[in-house]
Amino acid sequence: MLKLKIRQGVVLAGLFALAACGGAGSGGGNGSTAVATSPDATAKISAYTEAYNGLIDTFGLPRTAEDYRKENIASRSPSDDISISQGWIETAQGKLKTARALPGALGALDVKAEALETALTNLLARLGPLYSYYNTKAYRADALKRGKEEDAAMTAEFDAALKAMEDFNTALVQQRRAGADAELAKLKSAGDTVGYNNKLAMQQAEELVSLFNKPEDLKDAAIFAKGDVIAGSLEKLLAEQQKAIAEAKSKATEPVQKSQLGVYGLVGDMLGTMIGQYRQLKQSHSGNDMNSMVDSYNRVVGMANDIN
Asked: Which positions carry the signal peptide feature in this UniProt record (predicted)?
């Protein structure tokens, strides 16, 4: 599945790298989601986000689990060269623990965070000693006996942690979207057309990229039908945003305002590029073209996050 990196706008990286994990469009989950309006709640969501980013990063949980499975311990021999990784899971777990300790009650999200931290603790308790076992080649001394005895349990710990991460991601996305909807209402009420359009465009871009959660989605006509609707809506919104930015620039008097409007314009340009890449993907059904679309989305989220 697409590996999700959620900031204050979702960043996606690594096409189909995360097996059995819900994407940014995932619904469901237990418990209610309250709109985070206090500074404490906002800070806690950001901290949770940072922890999640680390957990699904290059050497995070999905990659570490995938690398372990590829070793196929059950079929290996003591004479084989076997190695496993601990990845960056412990660092991400530390960030998650720090985030949980922050003030601000977030209901279901806090519950899922606690469950994820517990799953990671259990995972690391088994993974650390096994890493040493393979790293020191101790498996050659016991004819791989311990490795094979613990293989099923190690795989189960990875599966449990991945499921806990999926549940946490769902709760985190729901919490962030509740806040985004509140922010959209606030921007609209304030008459900030440029800000409103930008926020809405980022949401639509997220929905477009998040349609593709597994390789077979790249050839699914029903998914592309949904994508066409989103892409068409986003394209219309970007045309409206160009007019809104031009009007705002004609009224802007401060250099800071003009600079910010310039960034809004760059965000719109990159989103336009992303729409073009989506249409290319529709023709090619290529994973490489999907990655190009994801890369553009990553960059545009970085731009949007830089707008003060």
From this structure: 1-19
| Residue where the block lists tokens 């979207």 | 177
Distance in angstroms (rounded) separating the CA atoms of residues 65 and 173: 23
Q: Can you tell me whether residue 6 is helix, strand or coil?
A: strand
Nearest Cα neighbor of 78 from 128, 126, 146 is 146
Cα–Cα nearest to 168, from 216, 114, 217? 114
Residue of 74, 86, 73 whose CA lies nearest to 120: 86
Q: Count other Cβ atoms within 10 Å, centred on residue 135.
A: 14
**pLDDT digit string (tens) for 221-267?**
999 999 999 999 999 999 999 999 999 999 998 888 889 999 999 99
Instruction: Give long-range contacts, CB 8 A cutoff, 24+ apart: 26-29.
Output: 26/166, 26/169, 26/170, 26/173, 27/170, 28/170, 29/108, 29/112, 29/167, 29/170, 29/171, 29/174
Q: Residue 298 has what pLDDT?
A: 81
d(CA 255, CA 203): 28
End-to-end CA distance of the chain: 32
**Backbone torsions φ then ψ of 6, nearest 5 degrees:** -100, 120
Give the chain's domains with CATH numbers.
37-190 (no CATH), 191-307 (1.20.120)
